[in-house]
Amino acid sequence: MIETGPAVTLTFVVYLAVVLAIGVIAWRRTADLRDYILGGRRLGPWTTALSAQASDMSGWLLLGLPGYAYLAGLEAGWLVVGLLAGTWLNWRFTARRLRVATEVYGDALTLPEYLQRRFSDPHGLLRLLGAVVVLVFFTFYTASGLVAGGKLFEAVFGLPYLWAVSAGAGAVLAYTFIGGFLAVSWTDTLQGVLMLVALVLVSSFGVAAAGGFGGLGASLEATNPALLDAFTDVTGTPISWLAAASLLGWGLGYFGQPHILARFMAVRSADELVAARRIGVSWAAIGLGTATLVGLAAAALLDPALEGADSEKAFMALAALLLHPVVAGICLAGILAAVMSTADSQLLVASSAVSEDLYRDLLRPGAGPGELLWVGRLAVIVIAVGAFVLALDPDSKVLDLVAYAWAGFGASFGPTILASLYWRRMSLAGAYAGILVGGFTVVTWGAASGGIFDLYELVPGFLLSALAVAVFGRLGPPATMPAAFARS
């Protein structure tokens, strides 16, 4: 347990009260499923950008990345470069065209619905396949957030892990169930600001406590010179091409993440995405850089050292060590913000797969807006329970769970989404092949180990999925692309 006091407890209570109040306000503005799933497509650029980045980075930005930098040093820079490049490319080449496409193709609310309409699937099997992918990988992804929340409550309040995970799950579930997309987007905006403030504060105080950047470098040099070399691992061995490709390859995942793409779909106007991109990429650059600094400062300052899975508590330990209790409480609430901002988004997208892509499409085509709204809310509960079960292992690492789900979405959806936006003559067969090959590769590659299988499964999954799209996308009649979309 990290030493804290009443100030931290009070900060958490106030923060949760604000979040739940936002949920209640959003409840009053949620009239139907379109509001619940995409907020009625009325997000401005700031809300779009901050909620996209907050839901993207999640608890791993304050736990996983500092923990990785704490153990690996500047080797973490490869991961930062890959993620930042992927962030920019996704905003630049996916955001606008996806926003236009989902409206042109029948005001599609979910990715599976968009793909079905884009490729005129007469049987709806593509939509079913997409919904299954969403449900499977989001259960793992949401579990990563609950693990992060469990570690937070366990470390700060000394709660048993089971109770800690339960508390975090309850908080996320409450306002996601109540408010839907508007609540999630508004709170993600608040949480995006809080996450960035927390990272800037802790990294700044950490560097200052180490004696500035010069002192930090000297401390790390004395601890382990390899921590300061981005081209070697912690033992001083040059990093392999597999390691470099694996870390840089994280950036490929952005093109297929439903909870991020949903923000692009929900912006008020496609023209506002330029401003949103500048805000979002700037946020990501600051967040990734300061999170890495937190890990490096923790490696220089913390004594005794953190070991194993406890390395993901580097941010918490450094905040408690260096900051006034009130400020530390705000920073630790930033972890809760990070956890909630992603878990709520994932639950919401997964619930939309149930209500839109499974319930209405397969079971109740005539279901009314109110009925679908409540199906979506009940789906949130069911999916959260599944994620909760996966999160019960106290030895789980946030970064490992995130990596698996990130790879699953990136490889399954990424190449198919990109091709659907830019390849006018792509066929339905290409969409099927891309999703199936990408998902299958991630599952099978991740189960193997040694040699080439040490390469992060996202990289081969994405490449093989893209190859499958290119080959099978030429088979069968090409799907039509409306002129309005082709000119966008």
State the share of residues found in helices, binned by percent.
Answer: over 70%
Oligomer: single chain
Cα separation of the termini: 54 Å
What is the domain total for the residues?
A: 1
Rg, Cα atoms, Å: 22 Å
Shape verdict: globular
Structure explained in plain terms:
- The radius of gyration is 22 Å and the shape is globular.
- By secondary structure, it is mainly alpha-helical.
- α13 (314-322) packs antiparallel against α14 (325-363).
- It has a single domain (6-403), classed as Up-down Bundle (Sodium/glucose cotransporter).
- It is built from 19 helices and no strands.
Key phrases:
488 residues, mainly alpha, Sodium/glucose cotransporter, 74% helix
